[in-house]
Amino acid sequence: MLRIARSCLTAGACTEGVLAAALPCRNIWSSPTCHQAEPALSDHVSAAPDSSSYPLGAIRTDWTREEVTQVYDTPLLELVFNAATVHRMYNDPRMVQRCTLLSIKTGGCPETCTYCSQSSSWRKETGLKAEKLMDLEAVYEAAVRARDSGSTRFCMGAAWRGPSQVGQGQWNRVLDMVSRIRGLGMEVCTTLGMLTPEQAKQLREAGLTAYNHNLDTSPEYYSKITSSRKYEDRLETLDSVRKAGISVCAGGIIGMGEANMDRVGLLHQLATLPEHPESVPINALVAVKGTPLQDQAPPSALDIIRCIATARITMPRSVVRLSAGRLNFSRSDQALCFMAGANSIFDGDKLLTTPNNERNEDLEMFETLGLKSRPAFLPYAAGGASSSGASLQPEEAQPLQQAVAAA
């Protein structure tokens, strides 16, 4: 059986035809609000319209590279149609989450990621100076502005290899940031580099909703992107996050010179994790002057749409986040991204150190396309039981679950 979580923003949403394209399921109309349903497998799984061997809508972590390649190589219009079909099985196609990303510690990172302006390895070429960790109150005020502008998820990034490289005072300040912002009723995500199991546990206890740790690219291409860490290091951090009871946010960057098979390899790696990530960001490279990838041509919108559609088909219940590089896409490009399964964007005029779309533009786009904002703490159907604290000991899980319920 597949368990499908469906939620609506208003009591009347289920009757507005928003989910009319979803295939039938049993016993979800017992109240004015949509609830979980457990349909028969045949209710939600069907062969792909192009007679491919993979079933549309199946929740699997045993995808083969050949199957993911088959999905990725589907003619684009057919691929988008298949992805839109799967998207409507598990998601409200009009609902898109608005997130805000803030760099709380910019520059001076010891890592050697060739796409990143914050690496100290090319600070002379980029001219980016290392800054200190922001003060708690300044970050809190930024979160309040984001919430008042309509964001329901606040993400904080620090240019660290990991918290282990900084003093206890800075780490405690980050934990305080998490707790304060969680008190605003927002989802809270951080990207702080590699974590130990103990650090992940401390973030969970502070109230962290999600942790972002992108795989960037395929295992085979990863050594061309950085020399300061291994792919296994990334996977170990994701495992620590999952075991701590924090939602996993993991995706990659498209357009770093990788081949199509490397894009397939990235998506295959994500789709075959023990549980699918709750969030899968798909980033388009924003080439920054002074970095080794400064002359890399950006990927086309159709490249990103193909990756989003493949992610949607292979990870049906994950939130697919249309992330960096969106500034280069037209409104029509973005509409195809949403049709293909993207259901989250980052708003605000800056993403860490690169420019982003203005909020007013996004509000106009939402109005034009008939989109609505995903509220905070709407259940994430993907992932494992650990993301709700269910795998923790009862005495540990209860405070976390109470905090989620109160928020």
What does this structure look like?
This protein is α/β, with parallel strands linked by helices and 407 residues long. The chain has 2 domains: 1-44, no CATH class; 95-403, Aldolase class I (TIM Barrel), CATH 3.20.20. Helices cover 35% and strands 14% of the residues. It is built from 13 helices and 14 strands. It has helices spanning 41-44, 65-72, 76-90, 123-126, 136-148, 168-182, 197-206, 231-244, 260-271, 301-314, 331-339, 359-369, 394-406, and strands at 46-47, 55-56, 95-105, 153-158, 187-191, 210-212, 247-249, 252-254, 279-284, 319-322, 342-347, 350-351, 354-355, 372-373. Strands 3, 4, 5, 6, 7, 8, 9, 10, 11 and 14 form a 10-stranded parallel β-sheet that branches. The protein has a two-stranded antiparallel ribbon with strand order 1-2. Strands 12-13 form a two-stranded antiparallel sheet. It is globular and about 55 Å long. The chain starts with 40 loop residues before the first helix and ends with a helix. Keywords: 2Fe-2S, 4Fe-4S, Biotin biosynthesis, Iron, Iron-sulfur, Metal-binding, S-adenosyl-L-methionine, Transferase. Belongs to the radical SAM superfamily. Biotin synthase family. Residues 94-326 form the Radical SAM core domain.
Write the layout of secondary structure elements.
Blueprint: H1 41-44, E1 46-47, E2 55-56, H2 65-72, H3 76-90, E3 95-105, H4 123-126, H5 136-148, E4 153-158, H6 168-182, E5 187-191, H7 197-206, E6 210-212, H8 231-244, E7 247-249, E8 252-254, H9 260-271, E9 279-284, H10 301-314, E10 319-322, H11 331-339, E11 342-347, E12 350-351, E13 354-355, H12 359-369, E14 372-373, H13 394-406
Parallel strand pairs: 3-4, 3-11, 3-14, 4-5, 5-6, 6-7, 8-9, 9-10, 10-11
Antiparallel strand pairs: 1-2, 12-13
Helix pairs in contact: 2-9, 3-10, 5-6, 7-8, 9-10, 10-11
Pfam families: BATS, Radical_SAM
Keywords: 2Fe-2S, 4Fe-4S, Biotin biosynthesis, Iron, Iron-sulfur, Metal-binding, S-adenosyl-L-methionine, Transferase
Family: Belongs to the radical SAM superfamily. Biotin synthase family.
